[in-house]
Each structure stands twice: as C-alpha cells, then as structure tokens.
Write a structure and sequence with these properties.
about 25% strand, 15 strands, elongated
C-alpha cells in the first residue's frame, strides 16, 4: 500500500488579491521546485468549493476572510459540512482581528496567520498542517484497509461455512445410520473441518480435521485438505490408502510447514464395520449402553509433514445403537476465566451422561456444556464436533 506523503497534498490558496499568486510562487519557489508545496489558487469561497470537489488531493485551504461572493467564514461553514477530517483550513486575517479569528476557530479552522503575512511563519504553519493531514490520511487509509480486510474475511467465512455439510439429516433415505456435525471457528475463518459422503449405497466416508495455526492460511489449507480427502475417498479406496495419497499431495504442495491432524473412517452401513486411520488426531469415543471407550490409535502422523509415510488402518465393529463421537482439541482446551481447561475428564463425564441421546442432541448439548464452562471467556480455538450412530 502506498502511504500518503506531504507531496501528495495540494494547498488551495483562497484570496481575491490579484498579486498574491505571483507572490506565493516567488516566495516558495524552492519548495515548489522540490515538490514540497503544490499550490492551487481561487479568488473566492465559491470557486474554492468547486476546486475542492474537483480535486480530492487538496488538503490545506489557506483562506482570507474578506472576499466577494463567499467570504472565508462562510467557506469554513461549508467545509465543515463536508465532514472530511483530512481537509484542514488555515485562516488569514488582519492583525488584531480577534473576533473573526475566534469565529473561524469555532467554525473548525485548524490554525491562523495574520496580515501582513510573515512568510517564514506561514511556511512553518503550512508544514505543521501538512504533517497533521498526512497522519490523518494515513490513519484513514489504514482504517479503510482494515474494513476491506474484515469484509474479505466475512466473505471467506461464508465460503468456508458453505463447503461444510449443513443440511441434516443429509441422507433422508438412509435409515441404517444417523449423523450430525457442527463447527464454530474462533476467528472469522478457521482451520477445523468435518465432512461425510456416501462412497456407495453401503459405505459412508466421514472425516474430522484440525489444521495447525489459525486465520486465512489455516482456512486455505483446511479447504485444500478437505477437498483432497473427499475426492480421494469417493474413489472407494481403503482408509489407509486415502491417507497415504492425500498426505503425499499435501507434502508436495504444503507451504510454511503447515500440517493437519485427521481422523478418517469408512462405515459399512450394513455390517457396522468401520475401517479407520487416525493421522495424529484426538482419539474419538465409542459410545454404547454400557459406557464410553476411546477408539484405538493407529500410530499415524499428521498429514503434510513426511512424504511416503505408510499409514496403518484398524477396524472396529459397531453394534446397533452404538455411536462414534469425534472432536477437535478446541473442546478439551477451552479455558474459563480461571485458566482451567474443559479437559478430557469433563468431556468423558458429559458423554457418559448422554449415552442414550440422539447424535444431534449430543452435539448441541456438548457445545452448550463447553460454553457454560467457559462463561464469557472468548473462544481461543476452533471447535468441531461430529457424531455417528449405527442403527443396524
């Protein structure tokens, strides 16, 4: 971004004295030649207003008070209506004319000089005013840039939310399983994701992931990771082969050493068998009528670090009525005002109390439980939850 400098600010001199323009150009010829000052001239307030509207680079209005058609005090009133903080007026008034000077200052003049004009004093005043205008305009530019970034982040958030499944139940004709998921980003955009898709009429692919880092880079890496896993998983390859292929792609394309932890599983919706790989992610829980148990790790590593890693898969057999609960560490690492984490213990206690609830209720109540625990402490990490019930 090009920052505003003093040479970008034009000075509008407003005075009906015929000889003033020649005098100003003579007195400040060096500054004009070196492009320190850039003067524009107008003979009255009306002409000045027209030039201000025509030339946005005008930052200083150096105006006499007594002029035909529109005097300096009226011009000040009109300029105040423009509500342009990057436009400053310096009033020129006769020595001792304190009433008009006070009126001018009350109407928003930044400074004043007196007649007969001392050009050394005028130069100091102009430079001081230029410095103030540059600071203000830079601040306005930075504010506009921040607004633009915020708008872009909101659009990115909408895009990110749009690529995650959000219609539940997602497969109304499928009765052998129920599924529900939700993601709440800590910032405008996040690095967590979840996804699920029917590989064929009898197999459901499901995944949850957590990209290292936050913000836009993590969100972009999240979108790439989610897309690659879905595209590869839809080919029907085993979970281990899917993770190996996606990992190699991410290693080849990864920048800034970004990586993502992933749990990817394939549920056989007729038998309840789950073929899964845990690539450095938090171990999910299996919920049954007798309690909860952690699903075994598979000694996999996060995706995006080491190429040609040989991922190993494992299998579990879900019984009708059992559920799998997947989460990201934004849940267990949610802190309250006393810097106490929600923790695995509280999560396990919650799950044991909701064994017989629907997956939708479990997900929604889990968010409620975490929010109640942290109270008004701002969310520090993305929180993503996914649950699947096998109905048989």
């Amino acid at each position: 971004m090009n920052q505003t400098s003093q040479s970008d600010v034009k000075i509008l001199v407003v005075d009906d004295e015929i000889d003033l323009e020649d005098m100003m150009r003579l007195k400040f010829r060096r500054q004009i030649r070196e492009k320190i000052f850039d003067f524009i001239f107008a003979s009255n307030g009306l002409e000045a207003l027209a030039k201000i509207l025509e030339i946005p680079e005008i930052g200083i209005v150096l105006s006499d008070i007594n002029m035909p058609e529109m005097d300096g005090l009226t011009l000040l009133t009109k300029l105040k209506e423009l509500k342009n903080p990057g436009l400053k007026t310096v009033i020129v008034s006769a020595y001792g004319d304190m009433d008009n000077i006070r009126t001018a200052m009350n109407r928003g003049a930044f400074d004043f000089v007196t007649k007969p004009v001392n050009f050394e004093d005028l130069e100091i005043t102009i430079i001081k005013t230029l410095e103030e205008i540059v600071l203000i305009r830079r601040s306005l530019d930075e504010h506009d840039q921040l607004v633009s970034i915020h708008e872009d982040l909101n659009i990115a958030r909408e895009i990110q939310q749009a690529i995650l499944p959000k219609v539940f139940p997602p497969f109304p004709l499928q009765h052998s399983f129920d599924i529900y998921a939700s993601m709440v980003a800590a910032k405008e955009v996040g690095g967590d994701f979840f996804d699920f898709f029917l590989i064929d009429p009898y197999r459901l692919g499901f995944v949850i992931g957590d990209v290292c880092g936050k913000g836009v880079p993590a969100a972009i890496f999240m979108a790439v990771s989610r897309t690659l896993i879905r595209a590869t998983g839809l080919k029907g390859v085993p979970a281990s082969e899917c993770m190996r292929y996606v990992n190699n792609l991410l290693c080849n394309e990864s920048v800034s050493s970004m990586f993502v932890s992933v749990f990817y599983g394939i549920l056989n919706t007729t038998t309840g068998e789950v073929d899964y790989v845990n690539a450095g992610h938090n171990p999910p829980y299996l919920l049954s009528s007798s309690g909860i148990s952690k699903i075994d790790m598979t000694n996999g590593i996060v995706l995006g670090l080491f190429e040609d890693f040989n991922f190993q898969s494992k299998k579990i057999m879900m019984k009708p009525g059992e559920k799998i609960f997947l989460y990201t560490d934004g849940v267990t690492e949610a802190f309250n005002s006393e810097r106490i984490a929600y923790s695995m213990d509280k999560l396990e206690k919650f799950l044991n109390q909701h064994l017989n609830n629907s997956v939708e209720t479990i997900i929604k109540e889990s968010f409620t439980d975490v929010n109640t625990f942290v109270a008004n402490v701002p969310q520090s990490d993305d929180i993503t939850l996914l649950a699947i019930a096998f109905n048989g």
